[in-house]
Amino acid sequence: MASAAAPTTFSLLSSSSSSSSSSSSSSSSSASRSALLRLPASGLRSSGLRRLGFAAADPFLAAHVASKLRSLRGKGSRGVVSMAKKSVGDLTGPALKGKKVFVRADLNVPLDDNQNITDDTRVRAAIPTIKHLIQNGAKVILSSHLGRPKGVTPKFSLAPLVPRLSELLGIQVIKADDCIGPEVEKLVASLPEGGVLLLENVRFYKEEEKNEPEFAKKLASLADLYVNDAFGTAHRAHASTEGVTKFLKPSVAGFLLQKELDYLVGAVSNPKRPFAAIVGGSKVSSKIGVIESLLEKCDILLLGGGMIFTFYKAQGLSVGSSLVEEDKLDLATSLLKKAKAKGVSLLLPTDLVIADKFAPDANSKIVPASAIPDGWMGLDIGPDSIKTFSDVLGTTKTVIWNGPMGVFEFDKFAKGTEAIAKKLAEISGVGVTTIIGGGDSVAAVEKVGVADVMSHISTGGGASLELLEGKELPGVVALDEATPVPV
Questions:
Q1: Domain 61-261+473-477: assigned CATH number
Q2: Of 29, 200, 235, 345, which alpha carbon lies 20 to 30 A from 21's?
Q3: What does the pLDDT average to over 187-205?
């Protein structure tokens, strides 16, 4: 456990794990909170470097970002540099007019039993790139997957997307019954300038996920150039995300993909400070890479969710029947030590909402984090922790959030997650850059109704995690490099 002698690192736990009274917890929490608000300047570094920003169809966009990112030094810069890619915004006029453009989008939307779209977020996210292309006279060949089909599976057809795409684009989108073959080639040949042809689910072919060169070549033969706007699948080397780039030039990033790189690479690698990261979720093991990567970059790290109990147990505290990864106790200890060494203020909750079973109707009560009784499990952060976390977030300039604070699917244990979402919405309104890094965090801000005020909502779960870990995404690496220019 971090001690009072380490002023830039706080676990927000009482220095004595034997204390279980509410008054003791309150006193300890208040002292910790007071100390946090007096963090030394070395722990909350400032930076004159401004956050990178993408403007749609800006011809100097990718080059500007490439130049900025190439100026970075230190661990992880190699991965960052390789993510500076040429943009669809660089392609206008003669470069697009009359050209057949293969666009890989992520239209993997949820459908109900009647094949109605229940959330069109990903469809709407793909529209800016498609509109840019059709407004410049391109012929758009739109490709995507849907679900996890095993061969041709009617319930995973992209047909239900046609009405919504047509409505959003203001033109009638044509639908092909396949993604390769003579009939598709005929439809492509008859496609007018400014027209859009939606291919059938590319994963109906097993060759897609195997990235077989011949299949990729068949897809590429339909077009003159390639645009990848499918961030959600960019961490996979599939035929339509990586393979086709070997046969189509230029191969560039769409506006959505580029925006993801702007925030998840640009803003995180070069943030306005103080920079805080909030990491939640059930297991430390699923977030090891993210935590380690963020410890290299952030000033403050807030931890929540089921993973915190592994950290508690590693510090000798009783966790009752809470979720613990016994084989990750040493890792938790090493991460606490690393935070201290890096001068990162690592915060764990001081109080918790505990339950006698994992159920929405469980009996519950609030206890200090050091006083979880046997047979009870922690399912949310408590009110004192909510206040502390909120106070700290109020001091920041950049925040990234990945993972809920508790079991927010159960209303009884959603208060912590919802409070964080509302606090991020509040600070977004005063100019703080707020980045929601995919998965359950996105569901949380949507549930609370504050998604629209966040600076950026990531559309990719696995891709967001891998990018935050500093990994290179095959679907991005395969795109043409941006050419840096003086800025």
A1: 3.40.50.1260
A2: 345
A3: 98
